[in-house]
Design a protein that fits this description.
Keywords: Aminopeptidase, Hydrolase, Metal-binding, Protease. By secondary structure, the protein is α+β, with helices and mostly antiparallel strands. The protein has seven helices and 18 strands.
């Protein structure tokens, strides 16, 4: 679940290329090959050597152009366009039994302020964090088994809600700043904070399910993007690279490490695949408080601060296939194919990519140790 923050950033990529008819790229892209008199005289003097050199040059350039054309074709055919996401019917808010402890924001429509304190735990509170995060991971695994064509996100929400309250926990998103459901379900171009409704999942969809539970006074927060039915290779790659970025961000974490290393590691890996890192969404401290400092940036940055043993926070990953001008506010990293410009529905939660490009997201809650990081939200 996302923490609201204000970030304003602009990034642009200017592409320059030679398009002159006399350029080497146009010559080997299909223009006739004309030999100059100088070339002929050299060829006659030393025919074998010169011909071999020219052959290698042509072969190398043609191979480069072939690869470039294939990539261009892949980029234009990478995704099957489907109808844009539409709001379905949102069912009434589900009840929580009186005996289940509620978080402090329960009953208030106001969005809580981001807490300034870093959440560092002793051995007792670490045990509570492990229990909350382990439950969140089990709930998320179960939610993933429900992802099938024709299943509605509202059905997923009801199943998640029931599992959480049966475990004696509270679904943290429910009522947080007025959020009406117990889980976030973000389908296809929905970047985050999707509200479960009556829309049926379609064959080829991807869906991020974001689960947070409040158990014995502690929050465990995790999310994963699932494949629904027969998903395209492009979307599978989007999901896979997103998860790998999160894993690489976690790998640099340990006591004394700089927070900015996370963003560098994620950016390095994303750019290997031609992706750029979206700066809108950030990780956050989590524990007895749902959202607190530190804010975890997932793009390259020079923000100060180092990790402390016993500290807990979330790491997520948001990437895109091209760089665009970015202006936004709020929450957790995602990976998106296409533009990262976004729009928010009138519900003030559901955030979609402006051009309909699909987005993927992963999130773990981690505990900083002396030598590394323990992933708490995994079974």
């Amino acid at each position: 679940m996302a923490v609201v923050d204000s970030l304003v950033h602009s990034a642009s990529l200017r592409l320059s290329s030679s398009s002159s008819p006399s350029s080497k790229s146009s010559l080997f892209a299909g223009s006739p090959l004309a030999l100059s008199p100088a070339f002929v005289s050299v060829k006659q003097t030393c025919p074998n050597r010169r011909l071999v050199i020219v052959s290698k040059r042509i072969s190398g350039l043609e191979e480069a152009m072939r690869i470039r054309r294939e990539r261009e074709l892949q980029s234009t055919k990478r995704l099957r366009r489907r109808p844009p996401l539409r709001r379905g019917r949102v069912s009434p808010r589900l009840p929580v039994p009186d005996h289940i402890p509620k978080p402090p924001y329960f009953g208030s429509p106001l969005l809580p302020e981001l807490a300034s304190e870093h959440q560092v735990h002793d051995s007792d509170s670490i045990a509570h964090m492990r229990a909350a995060c382990e439950l969140a991971a089990r709930v998320l695994d179960y939610a993933g088994t429900l992802v099938k064509p024709s299943v509605t996100t509202d059905e997923i929400d009801k199943a998640v809600h029931q599992m959480i309250i049966e475990a004696g926990a509270y679904p943290s998103p429910l009522g947080y700043g007025g959020f009406p459901k117990s889980v976030c379900t973000s389908v296809n171009e929905c970047m985050c904070h999707g509200i479960p409704d009556s829309r049926q999942l379609q064959d080829g969809d991807i869906i991020n399910i974001d689960v947070t539970v409040y158990l014995n006074g502690y929050h465990g927060d995790t999310s994963r993007t699932f494949l629904c039915g027969n998903v395209s290779d492009a979307l599978k790659n989007l999901v896979q690279v997103t998860e790998e970025c999160m894993e690489r961000g976690i790998a640099v974490c340990k006591d004394g490490a700089s927070f900015k290393k996370i963003g560098k590691r994620i950016s390095d890996h994303a750019e290997k695949y031609g992706y750029g890192v979206v700066e809108r969404f950030v990780g956050h401290g989590v524990g007895t408080i749902f959202h607190s400092q530190p804010i975890i940036y997932h793009h390259r940055n020079e923000e100060p601060g180092t990790m402390v043993e016993g500290q807990t926070f979330t790491i997520v990953a948001e990437i895109l296939s091209r760089r665009f001008t970015v202006k936004y506010s709020c929450a957790e990293p995602i990976l998106s194919l296409g533009s990262i410009e976004c729009r928010t529905w009138p519900d003030n939660w559901t955030t979609l990519t402006a051009d309909g490009s699909p987005a993927a997201q992963f999130e773990h809650t981690i505990l900083i140790t002396r030598t590394g990081a323990e992933i708490l939200t995994q079974c």
